Structure formats: structure tokens, C-alpha cells
TrEMBL record:
Coiled coil: none annotated. It comes from the Bacteria. This is citrate synthase (unknown stereospecificity). Residues 491-507 have a biased composition (Basic and acidic residues). The chain crosses the membrane at residues 378-401. Pathway: Carbohydrate metabolism; tricarboxylic acid cycle. Its EC number is 2.3.3.16. SUPFAM superfamilies: Citrate synthase. It comes from Collinsella ureilytica.
Length: 507
């Protein structure tokens, strides 16, 4: 039936985008994003432009002008949790002094509690195979518990942001604990909220039923939250947040949409894929320290002869970063000691060798001379594994952390841009004469005659079946838009985690 084979699922030949000067995926031909707005929130730097050329550069992530490495290094040296300070910085544009930070922490602590009325509906009514789906519905449910949910004043927007920063960590952890208990036929044990705990500690408190976790574990999770808090306005979920905000809809609908975007495997789901790849490599490489054996297996992965057949080394490559991803470097720096403490030094060393050998193998197999660096996903899954965080929560924790960035971008769009985002699509269709229902044929042509890709600019029709095959071959050859933001092995976050593009480049 044409219901399942009609025009809605026809692919477009890439030549059509070129002929009509369409920036597919809002991306320029060199892989960089189309400039869609202005922001004072963050800067993701990975290259410089000189005379029309893209020059690779060391990666740098700045939040409100402050280097993320300086923020994390300083909070670690002072032995204090930093995610809440990062959230304050993103929301207000300024570093808090001691009084302001204490007030902010008190506000978050006061909002950790989830009302009994809410808990009677959540999470029992929101059991799902996806915690991200639960999170989106949980945020929408909070709309009903807001006395004036459609109020978009700055004060109310800030109150909602603080409320979600406080509650989402517990909601995500409770959703997983409840789902696990339901599957095992037991009642979930959920500890009472503790206003004195940091966001990282709050998450571990719910996940560890015995309440036992070390300070080092909580500090490492805090680093991960800071690294995922914000990554520029162009990544898919943040752009979705801005698109909805530009329509002046309510905050709950906006944040639920951002969560839905992050749920996509091309954006936020890369870290779990990396974990699967690491597991596969450990199973098939007998000597993890033998670089020749490891390189040979990486070559098999690239040639689609091993792992998932995608030809991607997940966790390598990024849409913006070229020489280095600062988030990956910080992950590696702070994860090494915990890995050694937990007896996982060999696994950590294997990941380091993958990071070092993958660019060489990719150069030889794909004849690539462009720089390739590890993105944050190469280490994220391993770190979460060390912390005992289940894979089902990898992307939800990404969402929990990114709530700070989404809130900042929503308010910047809502109060700074004052115009609905409304891009255009170029029509490529032929004018046709309407046929009365009784005159339409009851016997349909074959799929070969029905499935056509039309180009109104030339009037030419190409068989969709032929186009489909060529598109897949071309996409596989280019290794673009495969698993993305965070995901791609060679990720285009989106992933982003954000705009990772496993094997996606600017050149």
C-alpha cells in the first residue's frame, strides 16, 4: 500500500540540495553550522579561519567567557562541588560570590523535595522502556503542579529553572530505581531528599540503595555534570529549546522538547554505543597492550568487518573540535586515578590506546589527512561504568546536566531575540491536476513506477529506489550524519555529546 510506501519516506538525492543551494541539516559545505543567532552563553572553539581556509586548533570550551578547564581545575583544587556554580554562571552570566552561591544552593536544596501529589502519579504511571521518555513526561506533568505555568516573566522562568535543576536529578534516579524494582517484582527503596547534598551526591544517593558512595566518586560525577552542562546554541537539543522558546510557549513544553531531541541516537545516545564498542574490542583483542593487534581490529571495524558493521569508531571525531576536545581531556585526567583505585587500570589503558591509534588507522584505511580527536563520549561510558551508573541512565544524566544550559538559552531567546524562528523550505514538486475520487485507479502501479523523487526545477524524475541506494553509499563513504551530538563515532551531540560527529569534520 502507498500508505507505507508513499512520498513521505522518499529520500532526496544530495545533488538536489546542492542545486537549490540548501544547507542540509543547517550545515555549511565545510561541516560548520549555519549561523542562526547570537549568544553570550558559551563558545565552542576548535578551529580558526584564515583567508577562507579552516585551520585546526586546540579545542576550548568557554562558559560566559570562562574556560571550563579553569572552572573544573579550581573547584577540584578547592575540594568542592562545582556544578551548581556552573549553573548559576550560565543562568546569570556572573560567577557567584560566597553569599550568592550559598543562597543558590539553599534554593536548590529547598526544591529537591517532590510533593506527595506528584509522586502519586509519578513514577508508577510513567513506567517505560526509556528513562528519557519518562523524563519528558515528568517535566510535562510538572506543568499541572504550577499555579501559573504559562507565565513567562523573568522571575517565573528563573523559578522554573531552579525547580528543574533541583528535581530532575531525583526524578531521573527515581525513575530508574522504580523501573528496576518493578522488573524485579519488589518495591523501590527511595531515600528522602537531603537539602545538604550536591547534585552529584543526590544522584548517587538514590542509585545506591545503601547510600554508600565515596567523596571521590561524587566529585568525578560532578566533573561530568559540569562538562555536560552547556555546549553552545547550535547543538540539536539546545536549538530545539530555542525554537520552542521563540514561539513563547511555556517552559515545561520547551524543556520536554529538548529532552526529546537529546533522546535521539544522532545526538545524545553515543556514550552507550561507545561502551558496546569497548566491550566488543575487549572480547576480540586478546592482548590489550599489543598495539598491532588492536590496530588490526580497529581496521576491521572501519572496514565494516567487525562490531556493528557501521564502519565507525565511536568516540572519535567531532563537528567542531579538531586537534582536541577539552572535555575528553578533562575526563581522562580525572578518571585515571579512580580507574586505578577500582582495579580498572588495564581497561583505562585500552581506551587510551584506542584514542592514540584510531586516527592513524583511519588515515591509512580511509586515506584521511584531516585531524581527528577523541570526543567526550570515548570516556563518558567508562566513567559511568566505574561509578556504577546503569547504561539506561547515561543519556538521562546528560539531560540532567544540560538543564542548566537549556535554561540559559531559553531565557536568552525569550528575552533577547524577540522573534519566532521560522526558516524556509524550498519546494521541489510538480503542479498536478486534482482527480475526483471516483476517477482514481483502484489498481496501483508497481513500486518502481510509484516511488519517484521529483525535482520541480528541471521537471526530471528519478527512481527513488535508485536514489536510495546511491544515497546510502554516499553517506557511508562520507561517514556523516550517522550517529550523532554527542554521538558519532566520529559524531556529528550532538550527542553532544553534543555535536559530536563521529567521523564528521569541518574540512
Amino acid at each position: 500500500m502507498r500508505l507505507y510506501q508513499g512520498a513521505a519516506i522518499q529520500e532526496y538525492d544530495e545533488d538536489l540540495f546542492f542545486r537549490h543551494n540548501v544547507k542540509r541539516g543547517l550545515r555549511n559545505s565545510d561541516g560548520s553550522g549555519v549561523v542562526a543567532g547570537l549568544t553570550r552563553i558559551a563558545d565552542v572553539h576548535g578551529y580558526v579561519r584564515e583567508g577562507g581556509r579552516v585551520i585546526p586548533d586546540e579545542g576550548r570550551l568557554s562558559l560566559r567567557g570562562y574556560d571550563i578547564e579553569d572552572i573544573i581545575t579550581t573547584t577540584r583544587e578547592e575540594d568542592r562541588f562545582g556544578y551548581e556554580e556552573v549553573a548559576y554562571l550560565l543562568l546569570t552570566g556572573a560567577l557567584p560570590n560566597e553569599i550568592e552561591l550559598k543562597d543558590f544552593l539553599d534554593r536548590i536544596g529547598a526544591n529537591r523535595h517532590i510533593s506527595e501529589g506528584y509522586l502519586t502519579q509519578f513514577p508508577t504511571s510513567t513506567l517505560s522502556t526509556s528513562i528519557m521518555n519518562v523524563l519528558a513526561r515528568a517535566v510535562l506533568l510538572l506543568y499541572a503542579f504550577d499555579a501559573d505555568p504559562d507565565d513567562t516573566s523573568p522571575e517565573h522562568e528563573m523559578d522554573i529553572a531552579v525547580s528543574l535543576l533541583a528535581r530532575l536529578p531525583r526524578i531521573a534516579a527515581i525513575a530508574h530505581a522504580s523501573a528496576s524494582a518493578h522488573q524485579e517484582g519488589r518495591r523501590a527503596v527511595i531515600p528522602s531528599s537531603d537539602a545538604s547534598l550536591s547534585t552529584a551526591e543526590t544522584i548517587l544517593q538514590v542509585l545506591r540503595e545503601d547510600g554508600c558512595f565515596t567523596h571521590e566518586e561524587a566529585m568525578l560525577l560532578d566533573v561530568m555534570l559540569m562538562l555536560h552542562a552547556e555546549h553552545g546554541g547550535g547543538n540539536n537539543s539546545t536549538f530545539a529549546c530555542r525554537v520552542l522558546s521563540s514561539s513563547a510557549t511555556d517552559a515545561y513544553s520547551t524543556y520536554a522538547a529538548a529532552i526529546g531531541s537529546l533522546k535521539g541516537p544522532r545526538h545524545g545516545g553515543a556514550n552507550a554505543k561507545v561502551v558496546d564498542m569497548h566491550r566488543d574490542i575487549r572480547d576480540h583483542v586478546t592482548n590489550w597492550e599489543d598495539e598491532d593487534e588492536l590496530a588490526a581490529y580497529l581496521e576491521k571495524i572501519l572496514r565494516r568487518e567487525a562490531f556493528d558493521g557501521s564502519g565507525l569508531i565511536y568516540g572519535m571525531g567531532h563537528a567542531v573540535y579538531t586537534l582536541s576536545d577539552p572535555r575528553a581531556q578533562l575526563c581522562k585526567r580525572y578518571a585515571k586515578h579512580l580507574a586505578e583505585t577500582k582495579g580498572l587500570g588495564a581497561e583505562f589503558g585500552l581506551i587510551e590506546r584506542i584514542e592514540r591509534l584510531a586516527p592513524v588507522v583511519m588515515r591509512d584505511v580511509r586515506n584521511m589527512n584531516k585531524p581527528i580527536c577523541a570526543n567526550i563520549d570515548l570516556y563518558t561510558g567508562f566513567i559511568y561504568f566505574m561509578l556504577g551508573i546503569p547504561e539506561a541512565l547515561f543519556t538521562p544524566l546528560f539531560a540532567v546536566a544540560r538543564m542548566a544550559g537549556w535554561s540559559a538559552h531559553r531565557m536568552e531567546e525569550l528575552f533577547g531575540a524577540h522573534r519566532i524562528i521560522r526558516p524556509a523550505y524550498n519546494p521541489v514538486l510538480e503542479e498536478r491536476t486534482y482527480i475526483p475520487l471516483t476517477e482514481r485507479p483502484l489498481v496501483f502501479p508497481t513500486d518502481d513506477n510509484v516511488e519517484r523523487a521529483e525535482d520541480s526545477g528541471t521537471g526530471e524524475c528519478e527512481q527513488a529506489s535508485n536514489t536510495e541506494g546511491s544515497n546510502r553509499e554516499r553517506a557511508q563513504a562520507n561517514n556523516t550524519d550517522t550517529i550523532g551530538e554527542h554521538a558519532a563515532a566520529n559524531d556529528v551531540h550532538d550527542n553532544s555529546a553534543d555535536d559530536r560527529t563521529d567521523h564528521d569534520h569541518l574540512f
